[in-house]
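call fold target=PilZ domain-containing protein
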Amino acid sequence: MEHRLSKRIPGKLGLLVYKRGMPVATGQIRDASKRGLFIATDYTDIQLNQVLEVEFRFPERDEKNFRRLRAHVVRKSDQGLGLDLEGVDNDHFTVAALMQWLHQHHRPQHYFPVAGTVAH
């Protein structure tokens, strides 16, 4: 059984993955919490506990600045990477802004038609 210390918010936001200051891969944030991220990526040259940086920009905002977060890898799977934001130096404003953006832009997925409607 999985135990989460903070609520995860699903979403989709493209990003770049940096290793040792160099961009090495692209990916997409699939869910996030105040404590961590899961990013979908096919990049596999990563070790557990390795520190990475992820860089993203909120597409609908007027700002042109990219934001960067540091994290260490706590999980690897065929679908991507689980990253922990705790224990590394991050701007808490950036984490809060990411959580707010994902919350505002999350659209629930309906896999089955609602009762009384016909799927086309």
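return ok
Residues 109-120 have pLDDT under 50 and may be disordered. The chain has one domain: 9-105.
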